[in-house]
C-alpha cells in the first residue's frame, strides 16, 4: 500500500538518508575501529556505545528507505487549482464563532508537525476538510466540542 507524501517531505527524508549514509556511517565505523584497538571488547564502553549508535543509524536508514519505497509522492504545485481541499493543499480556515483564522497544510502522517502548521491527512480537521471547497463550512470534533470552520482559501504552494 502506498502512503501519500509531499514532495518536500520526500526531499527532507532523502537529505537525512544521504547524511546517515555518507557522514554517520563512516564516523561510526571509525569509532568502532578505534574502540577495537583499545583491547578487551567485553568491558569497552566506547565500543559498546559505538555499536549501539550503529544499530540505531542502520535502523533509521531502513526506516527511511521503507517510507520512501512506500510513498506516493505528490507535488501539489503541479495539480490544477480548483478551490477544492486535497492532499498537499494549504488551507486557510476561519472559526465561524470567533472569526479567528488559521492556516494548515495537509500532509502525510510522517510529515505532520503542528508547530509548522502541517497536519496529518488522518487528523480530524484534515478529514473534515478533504473534498470540501472554498466557502464551505465544516464541523470538526475537537477536545472542546464541535467547532465550525469556514474554508476561506485553498492554496497550492
Automatic annotation (TrEMBL):
Residue stretches making up the Transcription elongation factor GreA/GreB C-terminal domain: 82-155
Top-level taxon of the source organism: Bacteria
Keyword Transcription regulation carried by entry: yes
Gene Ontology MF: a single term: RNA polymerase binding
Database matches in Pfam families: GreA_GreB (PF01272), GreA_GreB_N (PF03449)
InterPro entries registered for this protein in UniProt: GreA/GreB_C_sf (IPR036953), TF_GreA/GreB_CS (IPR018151), Tscrpt_elong_fac_GreA (IPR006359), Tscrpt_elong_fac_GreA/B (IPR028624), Tscrpt_elong_fac_GreA/B_C (IPR001437), Tscrpt_elong_fac_GreA/B_fam (IPR023459), Tscrpt_elong_fac_GreA/B_N (IPR022691), Tscrpt_elong_fac_GreA/B_N_sf (IPR036805)
UniProt entry keywords in alphabetical sequence: DNA-binding, Elongation factor, Protein biosynthesis, Transcription, Transcription regulation
GO biological process: DNA-templated transcription elongation; regulation of DNA-templated transcription elongation
SUPFAM superfamilies: FKBP-like (SSF54534), GreA transcript cleavage protein, N-terminal domain (SSF46557)
Cited Gene3D superfamilies: Transcription elongation factor, GreA/GreB, C-terminal domain, Transcription elongation factor, GreA/GreB, N-terminal domain
Positions of the Transcription elongation factor GreA/GreB N-terminal domain: 4-73
Residues annotated as signal peptide: none
Family matches, as PROSITE patterns: GREAB_1, GREAB_2
Similarity-based family: Belongs to the GreA/GreB family.
Name of the protein this chain belongs to: Transcription elongation factor GreA
Organism field: Halopseudomonas salegens
Gene name tied to this protein: greA
